[in-house]
Amino acid sequence: MGKRIAGLLVAFVVLTLIFWAVEFFWPGVPAQRRWQRRGYRTDAFYWFFTPLISKPLSQLAVLVTLVPILWLLGRSLDRNAILAGYGPVLALPKWLQVIAILFVGDFIGYWTHRLFHGRRLWPFHAIHHSSKELDWLSSVRLHPVNEIVSRVCQALPFVLLGFSPAVVAAYLPFLTFYAIFEHANVSWHFGPLKYLIASPEFHRWHHTKEEEGLDKNFAGLFPVFDLIFGTLYLPKGKHPTEFGIAGEPVPSTLWAQLIYPFRGTAGLISARPSAPDDVQHEHGEGPDQHGVHRKRRDMERR
After folding, report:
1. 25 alpha-carbon distance from chain centroid
2. Are 105 and 154 in contact (CB under 8 A)?
3. Which of 57-71, 73-87, 173-187, 239-253 has the lowest mean pLDDT?
4. Burial class (CB in 10 A: 0-12, 13-18, 19+), 291
5. What is the Cα–Cα distance from 161 to 74, expressed in whole angstroms?
6. Is the dihedral of CA 102, 104, 105, 109 positive or negative?
7. For residue 147, what are the CA distances in angstroms to 28, 86, 142, 229?
8. Which of 43, 123, 198, 222 could cysteine-pair with 266, CB 3.0–4.6 Å?
9. What's the pLDDT band for 302 if we cut at 50, 70, 90?
10. Would you call 253 helix, strand, or coil by DSSP?
11. 34-75 pLDDT per residue, tens
């Protein structure tokens, strides 16, 4: 445990120095403070809490969920057999396995992310969206339930498809680092590649509290999924400047945020139009998203 904490402390210092320089030369919001921005102390606590508490819990949840499913499918529960993977997937070239993991993983992540914007799961995901000033460190502000559900939803399909859990485990740290990069206070959008690879500008639009960017840009790596499913938003020559959740009183401290989703009123504050349980139909002609937005705004006024 001591070595783990020391490693996290070293990584914190190194990344702080790297992103301080990057955000100094290419700031997304130039006026944003770097050392004492709002929520900095809470996110610093999350930097240690998420890998030391939330991630082990998510790994345990994957194991507890995976073993009964493998048993029902008649698969060997031997540790080495599970780690080896199985089926046609193993015959694929390594480079093709990597591409498959990236695209399949992002497809799963896209829909898991959309589910967290629905009424039932939103109170947990609202913690992540509560940062009013966004930078690389705000990426780790994640409720344990959000972490656990996301990891289970991502890991199980891969294992059931035959991928080795060891290969999947190597994929997860890459996602973590890329998420850190996407939250940085920079205005990068990768030019002509901005519709192919998710950039900080792409993801920062997802975090805006401005009406135009609500429930947009769910993909973690490939904006093509947002393009296909109608949730892409990347206006030319414009950058998001306001973040957080309008009208939603998410507490500012770590412990209060851990308790917040379990309060009776938390789930009634915000409705998100993109999740299946929030879709409303009018005369059988599809989702009335404007109605949902109006409902959310009415709740914010109360």
Report:
1. 26
2. yes
3. 73-87
4. middle
5. 14
6. positive
7. 27, 27, 7, 24
8. 123
9. very low
10. coil
11. 777 888 999 999 999 999 999 999 989 988 998 888 888 787
Place of tokens 């629905």: 118
User: Can you read off the two tokens belonging to residue 154?
Assistant: 């991502």
Task: Please tell me the pTM assigned to this model.
Answer: 0.82
CA distances for 211 relative to 103, 192, 240, 294, angstroms: 29, 26, 11, 11
The closest of 270, 219, 64, 56 to 147, measured between CA atoms, is 56
Give the other-Cβ count within 10 Å of 210's Cβ. Answer: 12
How far apart (Å, rounded) are the C-alpha atoms in residues 170 and 221? 16
CB count within 10 Å of CB 285 equals 7
- In sequence order, the β-bridge partners of residue 281 are 287
Token pair recorded at residue 261? 């989703």
The number of residues in the chain equals 302
Letter for the amino acid at 290?
H
The first and second tokens of residue 294, run together, are 């109006």
Give the rounded distance of the alpha carbon of 27 from its chain centre: 22
Q: Taking the chain, what is the end-to-end CA distance rounded to the nearest angstrom?
A: 46
CB 132 within 8 A of CB 243: yes
Q: At 208, is the secondary structure helix, strand, or coil?
A: strand
The angle that helices 94-116 and 144-161 make with each other, rounded to 10 degrees, is 140
